[in-house]
Amino acid sequence: xxxxxxxxxxxxxxxxxxxxxxxxxxxxxxxxxxxxxxxxxxxxxxxxxxxxxxxxxxxxxxxxxxxxxxxxxxxxxxxxxxxxxxxxxxxxxxxxxxxxxxxxxxxxxxxxxxxxxxxxxxxxxxxxxxxxxxxxxxxxxxxxxxxxxxxxxxxxxxxxxxxxxxxxxxxxxxxxxxxxxxxxxxxxxxxxxxxxxxxxxxxxxxxxxxxxxxxxxxxxxxxxxxxxxxxxxxxxxxxxxxxxxxxxxxxxxxxxxxxxxxxxxxxxxxxxxxxxxxxxxxxxxxxxxx
Length: 290
Ligand SMILES: C[S@@+](CC[C@H](N)C(=O)[O-])C[C@H]1O[C@@H](n2cnc3c(N)ncnc32)[C@H](O)[C@@H]1O
Hints:
Elements: H1 4-27, H2 42-45, H3 50-62, H4 66-69, H5 74-89, E1 103-109, H6 117-125, E2 132-139, H7 152-163, E3 169-174, E4 185-191, H8 197-203, H9 212-221, E5 223-233, H10 236-246, E6 251-258, E7 274-280, H11 283-286
The structure holds S-adenosylmethionine.
């Protein structure tokens, strides 16, 4: 919960955010895919206890993260490790829904710069990359400028390309996820969607674009019956709100784990984070049409 003065300050920024969002959306700045920034991981790894170093080495091997280790900052690498660790703990890796053609179709709604695309692709593909995956990331605010002069979309496309490095199909689009037309998806993920105004303003997205319940409905509607919705929330309170908002929708809770992780340099910030999975129900078996 923000303190009152923090909420007030965020609100003061609101009009400027509307203007800057409109400007960058009209300008659609792009300089093409950047070379992904890289940092050696050894100095950071050396600060971790041996059991955490071993856990990281295991994740890298199990999920074939060598391309990520070779082209990432410590922050990106850690963020991917944290997400994969939590996804693994959901315990769904062996029975992810797969289309009748053997392909897992997945969409990530609100993917930001999609820096975790490779982690998500690897989790969807399963051990040894056994499943074929078509993964698409959608981000509404893709034209923001990064310090290197590239846009968020430029970075997202570079991360998508890294995730596709050994034959996967990973795409990124600047789009409102509520408006995209998709074939029925096997899996829809949402990592840290905004469920309230403060997080939205602090991130820099104008309040006029905050439509969390609509986004959730779109995520559920994109799934085929039996498909999987996976959502990460920042806090237990936010997760409780998610549960309330999903209650009238045709999904049933499957699994929930803490995302608390010692494998990131910002471990203390992960303590309240929650990852949950929900199964899309067949409307006919629900009887009430959702
Ligand atoms: C907290 S950020 C999380 C970004 C990313 N998932 C991550 O974990 O780093 C939430 C993102 O959702 C995006 N977003 C909000 N509403 C959206 C919508 N309707 N369609 C697509 N993206 C949306 C925001 O612009 C923002 O980038």
